[in-house]
Specification:
Length: 344
């Protein structure tokens, strides 16, 4: 019996599939897969470049003294240390007021010492003598009244003379008591309230002197921190008012970078997140910085949508990053860049 041919399983009249066609199909399928994978990788969004700017804390130097610029001890661009004298202001008016308050202070001190010493010895002695005289007059008036009273009892003198003697005695006694009180007042000096008022006047005058001294000290303005002089506004000899800015001090040790970020990118920023920034001015591309401040800007910075379906207005946020370590050469005005990877 003859064996069955391998071709007997195919339908009658069907031809075998060529091997080259199968290979071509597999190759085409592989090509489609490769193209698809390449498309997936190349279809990823390119990174978004965010540009920010380096800034630093600025301190405006101003004084409390009305006067003219006497001299500048620094120039723009100079590096200064905390406590260095920057400018000298001359104010003849304040100096005159200081001398006036000093004189008033000395006068109140002398007046207070006089009050503490009490009434002068001569005044006390005079009051004593007046009392003694009044006392003698009162004693004489009493003796006179006693004699007149005896005579009146014996009907020697009239009633009118007796009444006059009695009135003179009472008046002399009142005068003697008044003189005695004046003598006691001279001994005791001024009252406690008067002494307290005198001491308060001394303290008020001393406060005025201290105020003038503080103003005169403010005539020599010093640097409140280490930094660099960024700008000087008035010229030597110009009049400056209290509180008017004279110069600006930039604290380079407190530099930071500011970015204005649209609201839809905020998921990529959070407090404490670290980024590697590029600073072209320093030829650095890996400067580590950390987010320490996030705050929305005003309505003027709102990004307006085109009112298409699904779109909405988005606000802008200010993001600040501070270098993880102090950077030599980092200065305000330099550009800083973040490459933000955005997934599909």
């Amino acid at each position: 019996m003859m064996s069955e041919s391998p071709l007997l399983g195919r339908g009658r009249g069907e031809a075998p599939v060529p091997q080259s066609l199968t290979i071509a199909f597999v190759a085409l399928l592989a090509l489609v897969v490769i193209i698809t994978l390449i498309g997936l990788f190349t279809a990823r969004k390119p990174p978004i470049t965010l540009q920010g700017q380096v800034e630093a804390t600025e301190i405006r130097i101003s004084g409390k003294l009305l006067g003219r610029i006497d001299s500048f001890l620094v120039k723009e661009g100079d590096a200064v240390r905390r406590g260095d004298t920057l400018v000298v202001i001359n104010s003849p008016i304040v100096e005159a007021q200081y001398r006036k308050t000093e004189a008033l202070h000395r006068a109140t001190q002398e007046e207070n010492r006089k009050v503490d010493r009490g009434t002068r010895r001569q005044v006390v002695e005079s009051a004593y003598q007046v009392w003694q005289a009044a006392k003698s007059q009162a004693e004489l008036a009493v003796k006179t009244y006693e004699r007149i009273h005896t005579l009146y009892t014996d009907s020697v003198v009239p009633r009118q003379r007796y009444d006059e003697a009695e009135a003179a005695m009472l008046s002399a006694r009142a005068t003697e008591r008044s003189a005695y009180e004046q003598y006691r007042l001279a001994q005791e000096g001024l009252q406690r309230e008067d002494r307290e008022a005198s001491r308060n006047m001394v303290e008020a005058a001393a406060s005025s002197v201290a105020e003038m001294q503080a103003l005169l000290v403010d005539g020599r303005l010093t640097a409140p921190a280490d930094g660099q002089i960024a700008g000087i506004y008035p010229k030597r000899g110009e009049l400056v008012a209290p509180g008017a800015p004279i110069m600006t001090l930039v604290t380079l040790d407190d530099s930071y970078v500011v970015f204005n970020v649209r609201e839809d990118l905020m998921p990529h920023f959070r407090m404490g997140k670290r980024f590697a920034l590029s600073v072209p001015a320093l030829a650095r591309h890996d400067v580590p910085m950390t987010v320490y401040y996030i705050s929305p800007l005003g309505s003027f910075a709102t990004w307006q949508s085109t009112k298409q379906v699904g779109s909405y207005d988005m606000r802008t946020f200010e993001i600040r990053l501070r270098p993880d370590t102090p950077m030599e050469g980092l200065r305000p005005g330099m550009t800083a860049i973040i490459e933000l990877e955005i997934d599909n």
